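hey m, so remember when u said the tokens were messed up on ur end? i reran from scratch. heres the input so u can diff it against urs
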Amino acid sequence: MFTHFFIARPILSSVISLLIVLAGAVSLAVSPIEQLSADANSAIRSLDATLKSIDRQLNDDSMVQQDLRDSLRELSKAAAEARVFLEYQTRYPEALIKGKAKEE
């Protein structure tokens, strides 16, 4: 019986040493994972705040929406006027050089 103990003792000692090394490796791996988790949480909070800000700015009654609508209305008017001008220039290309003919 004592012979088994003497044979098993080095094996148990090696297993204990291996467990100690493994515990150290696990504790080293936990620190970067905790930091990664904290960084991810911080990024998610920042993204959430950014999306809330965008949502407020693009609300139907926000000034940004109103300004955008006004700008698009003005752009639409300018496009219509450019269309009329280009149609006139297509019909009367000489008007660009001579000017518009006087109506009698």
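this time it looks ok to me. The first helix runs from residue 2 to 57. if urs says something different then somethings off w ur setup not the seq
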